[in-house]
User: Fold this.
Amino acid sequence: MFKKLGLTLALILTIGFLAACQQEESKGEAQEELFHYTQTAEDIAEWTSMETPGGGEGSVELGDNVAVIQAAPDGWGGVQSAPVTIDLTKDPMLFVQVKENADGFKWGAKFVPTTPEIEDHAWGVYLIEDNNFKWNNYAVSELNVKLDQSFRDMYGDKVEGVIWIYATGSPEATVEVTSVKMLNQK
Assistant:
């Protein structure tokens, strides 16, 4: 009698344990699918200097788990990602995690379409305005707000371009970036 009860209890515990493990595994997969674009500090350290109509060609190097972006000699500038396609029908959001940006300096993020329709867009469209946000927090931008209807009228719902992250305020300005991510809310 006790043997059967013990075996039944062991079987129930085993099934419960396996179910819990399977749920944890699916949570990890859901987290990976949440962000459709992820760049770590190591990835960002491979980005190239911003390609602008003039000036702002900053640099980047890998620091201690951060990409250290250095402004150009003219006091602002940074780096750009490889081309990325943004689908505005999916209500995307951009997350930039910044560890440090020294007081007195600022940083920002812009999007530059692959083929700018107007001159202003060759200088990038602000996704995150110049700020001093830091301490390994995320700055977040709703891209449908920043890339509004007039932008969509020019480029459509799916647009390819590059993301700029830059430091500003002095030739010595830097920003330490931990990660850049995008997710679709729809």
